[in-house]
Amino acid sequence: MSGDRTPVQHLADLAVRIREQGLPAALREDVARRVLDLTGNALAATTEEPARAVGAVARGWGGAAQATAIGSAVRLPAPAAALVNGTLAHALDFDDTHLPSVLHPSSSVIPAALAVAETHGRGGAELLDAAGVGIEATVRIGMAGYDPALGNSIFFERGLHATSICGTIGAAIAAGMLLGLDADGIASAAGVAASMGAGVIEANRTGGTVKRVHCGWAAHAGVAAAELAAHGITGPPTVLEGRFGFLQAYCGDGARPEAITDGLGEEWELPGIFFKPYPCNHFTHAGIDAARRLREGGLDPADIASIELGAASAVLRTIGEPAAAKARPESGYHAAFSGPYTVAAALLGGGGLGVFHEDFTDAAAKNPERLALAAKVRCVPDARCDEIFPHQFPAVLRVTRTDGTLLEERVNVNRGGPGNPLSAHELATKFHGNATRTVDETTATILTEAAFTLPTLANLTPLTTHLRPHDQQIGGRNL
Questions:
Q1: Residue 171 CB coordination number (10 Å)
Q2: pLDDT, one tens digit for every residue, the chain (479 residues)
Q3: What domain range is 356 assigned to?
Q4: Can you tell me the distance from the alpha carbon of 357 to that of 206, in angstroms, rounded to the nearest whole number?
Q5: Which of 15, 242, 301, 304 could disulfide-link to 238, CB 3.0 to 4.6 Å?
Q6: Which of 272, 300, 325 lies at the terminal end of a domain, its last residue?
């Protein structure tokens, strides 16, 4: 990379180059799979409470009917559609994850790109190219806040949600590409967006539904930033690495700006981003897999005296603390962030690919059998997991039976990533299970075909038409 260009300018240069030349076919295919995954996650979330709340806000804003609000016949101004769709995409914690930055890039970037592409009549390839660059920018900025010595994200250690903070900038870059901004304009869009990111993550620990809106706000802010840049608002060229820039403000001297530019445009993080098989916090997944293996091996939950869930120390702050709250989650949503609960659900036999949405209803979270088993789970730090984290989110289950015998199952490589990928059938199973919570089987099949043919679509109508069924309403009501 040329030394006379700043990191945000390098990102803008890449954006312009990819807009002109296009992503390689394999990367476009990868992004198309992410569009499919995200739209399924969003369709599954249309009856969730955040959908109702955000839908009400979007309705109150009014404005031109520009872009699809997923799951509704209503169309909204592009920034408002991005807010709704980003909220839906992240509301069930089923969105893809990049490691070791530990963020969910698609749920901020794709809703922003989808809203702008639809508004301005862009084709499928243009959507995929913009989303791909925006996702790459998001995870690289996230990696700039990763401390190898600490073995964790500085954003996360400081209580910040890298997903939304970094995702705002990636969303702005994608939106700027689709608006046709030149390199200076895209850099300004990113610079403006850096002033708009937000995401304090205390809700993961002690409750609150605001985290479910983080990606929606990031998508909304990214679109707004790009539109402001299109009308002449400028951002500082040193917005990322400067003395009062993004990385210094959020990460201090531990930031690594070189992570943004090293190999940029040549070595892509994009294909290594994990698809999530389970609709719950990613830190819980290896524990679920260990529980599934033990159950498939014949373990009867009635024979369990106690369970020890070992995980990385940093992970336990999210899925193991406070211990009493994690053993008895206050709602289905909070159950998705509980190591004890998710282990219990998997041991008792969950839906979908191992656990699914029905395992995270408020009623399921109060189920006496699940709570009794969750109460037997003790969360402890595990040295091997600490060594591996955050390149994977490993776990080990040690089960003591009532007869005193001990069983152990260790999972070091998460399902859904390059080392243990979801098959095409598994990804389709996940999508159909998600989508058919809102649309019928025929529509789900049409959407699958539309997503996979995005590189050839002249416009997004074959996709967006079926994302807004006329008999559906966001949050159970019209916007």
A1: 44
A2: 456 899 999 999 999 999 999 999 999 999 999 999 999 999 999 998 988 999 999 989 999 999 999 999 889 999 999 999 999 999 988 999 999 998 999 999 999 999 999 999 999 999 999 999 999 999 999 999 999 988 889 998 899 999 999 999 999 999 999 999 999 999 999 999 999 987 898 887 787 889 899 999 999 999 999 999 999 999 999 999 999 999 999 999 999 999 999 999 999 999 999 999 999 999 999 999 999 999 999 999 999 999 999 999 989 999 999 999 999 999 998 999 999 999 999 999 988 999 999 999 999 999 999 999 999 999 999 999 999 998 999 999 999 999 999 999 999 999 999 899 998 889 989 999 999 999 999 999 999 999 999 999 999 999 999 998 754 444 444 44
A3: 282-411
A4: 22
A5: 242
A6: 272
Strand pairing report for 395-401 and 152-153: unpaired
Domain end call among 411, 432, 452: 411
Q: H-type helices in 62-207, by residue range?
A: 78-91, 106-119, 124-144, 154-157, 162-179, 183-193, 203-206
Are residues 233 and 118 part of one domain? Answer: yes
Count of domains observed in the chain:
2
Residue 184: Cβ within 10 Å count: 15
The total of other beta-carbon atoms located within 10 Å of residue 363's CB is: 8
Q: Compute φ and ψ for 97, nearest 5 degrees.
A: -135, 135
Alpha carbons 433 and 157: distance in angstroms, whole number: 34
Residues 24 and 158 grouped into a single domain: yes
Same domain, 126 and 251: yes
Asked if 78 and 103 count as a contact pair (C-beta separation under 8 A), the reply is no
**Both structure tokens of 267:** 């070595």
Residues 301 and 258 both lie in one domain: no
Tell me how far CA of residue 55 lies from CA of 85, 110, 119, 160, 163, in angstroms.
10, 19, 19, 25, 22
Task: For residue 42, tell me if it sits in a domain.
Answer: yes
| 391: Cα separation from own chain's centroid | 17
84 and 167: one domain?
Answer: yes
Same domain, 308 and 257: no
321 in any annotated domain: yes
Contact present, 123 and 458 (Cβ < 8 Å): yes
Query: Count of CB atoms within 10 A of residue 331's CB?
Result: 15
Asked if 84 and 194 touch (Cβ cutoff 8 Å), the reply is no
Question: Are 138 and 162 in contact, with CB atoms under 8 Å apart?
Answer: no
CATH assignment at residue 300: 3.30.1330.120
